[in-house]
Specification:
alpha+beta, two-stranded antiparallel sheet, 2 helices, 13% strand
């Protein structure tokens, strides 16, 4: 498994990439550091900053999962309609 070094929230870390490539890791690091800069402006302590960043990222993940569910349901409905039309045409 590939490991990458990165600087997150001003700290040097080593992360296991799993199936992610270097560009994916860099995008994640950029997102975390962007959130860190937003939180840092408000002069909060490190633990509170980590909690706020975790919440923002979890919220984004939750929204993406909901969007994916909506898209899948829409696609499922479209497939059923298409199958019905094909059956009507053939039948």
């Amino acid at each position: 498994m590939q490991k990458y070094s990165a600087k997150v929230m001003g700290k040097d870390i080593s992360v296991s990439a799993g199936e992610l490539g270097q560009l994916d890791i860099q995008a994640i690091v950029n997102s975390l550091n962007h959130q860190w800069e937003i939180v840092k402006i408000n002069n909060v302590d490190t633990q509170k900053a980590a909690a706020l960043i975790s919440f923002e990222l979890a919220k984004e993940l939750f929204q993406l999962k909901n969007k994916q569910t909506e898209v899948l349901e829409t696609d499922r409905k479209k497939m059923k309609k298409l199958i019905s039309r094909i059956d009507e045409t053939i039948g």
